[in-house]
Fold:
Amino acid sequence: MALLQVNDIASGYEGVQILWGVNLKLEPGKLTTLVGSNGVGKTTLLKTVMGLMAPINGSVFFQGEDVTNLSAHARANAGMVLVPEGRQLFTEMTIYENLEMGAFSHRARANFKQNLDKVYELFPRLKERTRQKAGTLSGGEQQMVAVGRGLMAEPEVLMLDELSLGLSPLLALTLFEALTRLKKTGLTMLLVEQNVTMALAVSDYAYVLAEGKVHLEGPARELSKNDEVRRTYLGI
Amino acid sequence: MLDQLISSLTDGLLLGFVYGVAAMGLTLIWGVMSVINLAHGPVIAMGMFGTYLLFTHLGVNPYLAMVPVAGAGLIAGLVIYVIAVHRVINAPHLSSLLATFAVNMIIIGVGTAVFSTSPQNINYSLGSVEVGFLTFPASRLVGAFGAILVTACLYLFLYFTRAGKAIRAVANNRMAAELMGIPSSRVLALSFGLGTMMAAVAGGLIATFFPFTVLSGGPYELKSFVICVLGGLGHPLGALVGGLMLGGLEGLIPTFMPVSWVPVVEFGLFVLVLLVRPSGLFGAK
Amino acid sequence: MKVWQKPGFWLPLVIVLVWGGAVLLIHQDTMRESAFVLLMAVGLASSLNILLGYTGYVSFGHIVFFGLGGYTGFYLLSEQGWPLFASAIGGGLLSAFIAGLVGLAVLRLRGAYFALATIGINEAARAFVSNFEPYGGATGMFVNFSAYQKYGGPGPALWTTFTFLWITTMVVLVASYLVKHSRFGLGLLAIREDEDAAMVMGVKAPKAKTITYVISAFFPGVIGTLYFFKNGNIEPGDAFQLHMSIEMLVMVMLGGMGTVMGPLVGAVGYQWLRGYLLTSPIFKDLHLAVAGAMLLVIILFVPAGLVGWVRNHVQRLQKVLE
Ligand SMILES: Nc1ncnc2c1ncn2[C@@H]1O[C@H](COP(=O)(O)OP(=O)(O)OP(=O)(O)O)[C@@H](O)[C@H]1O
Ligand SMILES: [Mg+2]
Structure:
């Protein structure tokens, strides 16, 4: 059974509908990528899935239960965690406090120490500057905090929006490496990435979003050989 | 001359501590949800009357009375938030300004009907304190002490408790807080409640200094605006400093010019600071 | 279509024209008094709406222009012997001048910061006037009796004042319509939607906002002069009531901000309600609380105001209710 299932989601903003019936399934333990050109509605989809926006139509099932009418914080408490686009850190709080806030939910609090150690192991840089205000960190460090904060929530499913946006190739590589390590622990993930080549390389499965719907889907390896995908998203 | 100057300055500063607490409630609410609570004055008045009623009718020591008054202030704030503020929290500023003003009208309306607008006072004296050539009512000293205590508690709460940190997180980034599983609406309600709680306590403290009416909160609301802007809107500690500045000014100005010029200077300064440094005199640019 | 062919332009104007004309014809003192209060509310709310409704800037202390203009007009009239008309214009011009002076600085502030600054300006002005001896300081001024003589005694003078107010109110409504439907007004709407975007599109926001502020400050100055002349005295407590300022906001909100008709409907509706509550035996003691509760309901559930609501729900009336 799929861990997260998105059924026929339609969503949009005042006056403009962006999504026109998106279907998506995340299998447990798999890393899935969502591909699509700028402005097609990937962020909108993630926000709707998380409950930050109410859908016009459609439903979201998590662990077999209908969560469509739950608030975002209730979904987070249930184990759905989004690392949002643009990081959205608590800029006025320290790194440590940001991670602490990540572990706000009841489920995450119990294993706070272990999770903290895991995050520090993944991003040793963070450990060196726990008392620094998140707003004063470099872009790459901020992204590490954002991912680390998401991990502190002890997600059942981790959704990452624009993981490597604005990072140096080296740092992007570090983060992708972190992803593969997380994958090995059995974490289910949904990735939205500008760097489609890289994303498809690490993913198991992929969806291509176009004109408000799922345009293509399939195992990541196959999609990366698909002519249309190669032309449109890989620039080959 | 110098003696008189120091004495009126001390007077003003002691009062300034309590102004600071009143303003802290306002600035906390602004800092967390960018709402200017125009029901602030009436809540201060509620604090005055709450303390007064407990003291006059039940014989409770006024300082002890402030504990239940604080609780009532907290609850009042939660109720106000849920009924009047929550629906307009994301609307343009005019909506929340008018919604809280409507609450202001309701409280004043009911208050006037119940208590009329005749002045009351709390007939409880702690005597006076003499330090060198300075003499001032002991209630002022207790008030200042209470203000420091309230500030310290607020800081401990915001920095060392789970709920307090959640408030800071929501103030900083509401969406991210929600994504971390923090129930932001409840946190907003709590913050509003804390803001009104401080207003009510400030009212109780002021009631031990001066006579008051149902309408007495108004001037303190205006003072709170000035203080918040001096100290930087949204910064609780700034409010205490701003309160001391305002108290100090109120103590000093009358030794140089007629008392009636005090508000001219206060509000002139207020507008000036808003224009030149809207983040407050100490805030980052 | 030219402006004078549009029903939305004529409707509010005709209402006020007929209303004031009828009062003048019937010539009854009590009727004049109540019409005076209502027309004044319409004029003040409409002036405020020119700024609030079209630019989105919440001038919380807008009454300062009523107070300052009223004081100045009163001074010119009573102490300097100017005729009423010239004094009122003088009061209006002073308000406009002050608005121009502070506007450039204050209108840089956005949202609640602007609202707070206008409260501060009103309080500072009140405190200053209370200390300003030429304006009578804290006690204010009384009308020099000779000022009535020009109009044939106090009675006829009141009728003249009413006529001026009536005309002023119509001028405000015309100004409101013209601002809304000009190119200039289009720029203001862009500012209201998104000021930064408007600037990018080439709207000279600071200048446009300041001009609007000046226009919306001029009329309260005129109306203030007329009102205080009618009252026969002026004092700081009456001239700078923050409460009145907020009532103006409530009227605009009640009727529908950003519409020409809204402030008219809102002002009349609010004053009627207030009158009803104040005299009703059930609500008399609680009139303030009941008014507050109603305001709350409007803000929470009908934020577009009455006119806005009707416009949104009855397509056909959109042309008539501008
Ligand atoms: N708050 C909003 N109000 C109105 N329209 C919006 C809003 N946010 C996004 N949009 C529009 O919705 C569409 C989809 O936006 P979205 O952010 O979901 O795209 P995306 O696929 O994440 O793009 P990118 O790859 O650039 O991040 C865009 O056309 C965008 O302009
Ligand atoms: Mg996006």
About this structure: Residues 3-241 of chain C form one domain. Chains C and A do not touch (no CB pair under 8 Å).
